[in-house]
Amino acid sequence: MASTKTETTSATTRLTAGSGRLFSEGTDVTYGDFRDDLIKNGYAVVKGAVPRERALGYADGIYEWLEGFGLGFKRDDPSTIHKDHLPDINEKGMCLGYAVSHESFTWGVRQEAKVIEAFEKVYGTQDLIVSFDSIGVGFPNRKDIQPNKPWPHQDQDPEKPGFRCLQGLVNLLPNGPKDGGLIVCKGAHQLSEQFHEEFKNEEEKIWSWTKEWYGFTEKGLKWLKDHECEWVKIEAEPGDLLLWDSRTPHYNVTSETSQPRFCVYTCFMPVADATKEQLQIKKQAFEQTKMTTHWPNAAMIVDLPVLRNGEPDPSQRSSPREPVKLTERGYKLTGIPYLEQMA
Ligand SMILES: [Fe+2]
After folding, report:
1. Ligand 1 centroid, distance to 167 Cα (angstroms)
2. Structural domain tally of the chain?
3. For the region Disordered, what residue ranges are annotated (predicted)?
4. What is the CATH number of the domain that holds 334?
5. Range of the structural domain that residue 112 is part of
């Protein structure tokens, strides 16, 4: 599909592997689709990757799931938007417990053909694995949890430059300019290597629990501004797939309207990028319905205690409401068939 190849070397091509992968031919390439935005801006929107009605159906599934905890939440009663009536959802809208990574709506979105297809185009292969990541449940006007402060970051180790991971989310509800959601720093992915070269001896580093994360300090944000990188809040309709390069600085904001924001995080990578050991860990995570963060190679497993008022949450569960249902393609995305071939 790449039509023009005029640049063969670039700082952004380092650590990329395999022909057909985005950035493998440099940045002066035209595809005529969303990949052009990814190269130029570091983010893109694939409109209608999930048909609108089906996306709204997944949102309904999330509402049903929230009501199903029996804690008092009712979708039509805003007074029930309270931590006493909801499962544990942090101020960033992330839900990290209850085996939500393996709920019907989460796997439903991951197995959507056009969502998978977008990642196939980016990586130039159909042999992909998918992350067992979380969902986003953002309600407006919450006074019962701490405010959501911006935490601009990249989800990639500064010492491993180049395009390595494409992150994504499927937006499930109308998401206008003030409805909260993803904010990205346009074009900063291409300056990432230069940035980290200049900031490698930075004194005030923001603590991170993993090397695959870098937080921007005020000085870092000023650098981005001085290099004319603009922060953009992405707007989306139900069913739109939002994609961003892990090097693109980003964070999310809370809705300022009455509109909640629901999304399912979807991140895929070539199975060839995962080691056998990682696929074994991933298999175990699947069988135990655990969460893996956005890294599809199961680089990290999320297995934190879920607390309610400081005590283990009695509503916590280690498996979804129903056993996971997979299509043949969905099963491949777990990596298990590839692992069996390696045996
Ligand atoms: Fe992130």
Report:
1. 8
2. 1
3. 307-326
4. 2.60.120.620
5. 46-342
